[in-house]
Amino acid sequence: MPPRFNVLGVRVSAINPRDALDTIRLWIDQRQRRYVCVTGVHGVMESVNDPSLRAIHNGAGMVTPDGMPLVWLAWLNGWRRADRVYGPDLMLNVCGAQSMRNATHFLYGGGDGVAERLADSLRARIPGIRIAGTHTPPFRRPTPEEDSAAVDAINASNADIVWVGLSTPKQERWMAEHRSRLQAPVLIGVGAAFDFHAGLKRQAPRLIQRSGLEWLFRLCTEPRRLWRRYLSNNPRFIYHVLLQSAGVRVYN
Questions:
Q1: Range name among 165-179, 190-204, 208-222 with the lowest pLDDT average
Q2: Do 74 and 5 form a contact (C-beta atoms < 8 A)?
Q3: From CA 188, how far away is CA 179, in angstroms rounded?
């Protein structure tokens, strides 16, 4: 299990992209059953508000530092090798790695037709990738029969990795609820990576990503959907981190 550091009670993995790839490959080789939370400021603040979501994060095999603020906190905690493990990049790194060429993938999530479009995009981008199946759940909560059918389809595919694109915190809850029912060794929640790699949404330029201002780029591209998330969470995150750093408040 990768080492972790405490960010407002969430145990974030002190890793870089290479560490994440090696860990996922190890879990598949050993047929371990793990799930990965790809988490930034939004996921941490949702966990501050909801102890059950915090427990889901802390029960994950990895909680990757998806945003630069978490990377900077890792450095301040002495983990200088840590770097951003960004969901869309993690998907491409794992799917395209030579050491993972025999792994099979299942795509669960996205809106109508998104998973199929993503599968076509990945096949064009990574020749030889093995995509065992796709499934788009209803926007509402699935009925028990619908949920069982999806689980049966994933298990019948014999996938090694299930990529989950449901957004935070829905995808984290889904992975935790289904981990014991799915035979695939690894579940990875990558949220907007489905839309990005399917060509439905624009990614921020790399320089903006590394500067920690990706949130501003996304706010400008989707203001109606994201304004509340960023304008509420970001100031509160800074406030809580300052309290934790000063020892005024302890986040267990």
A1: 208-222
A2: yes
A3: 11
